[in-house]
Amino acid sequence: MTNIVICGANGKMGKMIYSCVSEREDCKVIGGIDVFTESYADFPIVSLPSELPEKPDVIIDYSNPASLDNLLSYCLTNGVPVVLATTGYNEEQMAKITAASSQIPVFFSWNMSMGINLLVELSKKAAAFLGEQFDIEIIEKHHNQKIDAPSGTALMIANGINETFDNTKQYVYDRHSQRKKREKKEIGIHAVRGGTIVGEHEVIFAGKDEVITLSHSAASRSVFAVGSINAAVFIKNRTAGIYDMSDVLKEL
Fold it and tell me: Quick check: 138 and 97 in contact, CB under 8 A?
């Protein structure tokens, strides 16, 4: 049994995680952290990690980058593994996450969907096979309330592909101001915002007289919740280090 605390417990994803955990027998939510401490289930919700009445096996964070310092402080002090599913961290915060991983297990991914992470792996294999003969473009679509663009997931896909080319590719986010032909070293990344689109990502490999497309579409936020719960169960007894969904996929 994996005892889980949800950071951001009163948010949409926090409640979704609780709902998904309730359907499983291998884990249980024993607490929550949120600025809004109103409880909606059989576990307490506190405003700070230090106020938790019981030490969890793992904390899943779906809150806000502003919560990072308090969260890492608690986890480092108490030796608690953490699953970081929040997006929007700056470089300084990413450095703190990396530093923390030298002392505790840290699971970090820009996207917790198993399908998306499989898409990344397939895109990397396609890039390695196709080489420089195909142009690569990434299109991501999200709901009209999403603030950041491009999405962290689109960048995760681009970074995975770029690793295949020894990080020699350059990202191009907007072409309207460029009056020139597309260069081979480019990876185009495009963002669409509209309606209630949960999340769609498409990777296009365009070559001479043929196009290969890899895509993923999320119909519900539950795919991200399930992925973060799987990550929590996976990381419970791991040694210190930084893990991502590719580590989970290796064990399937």
Answer: no
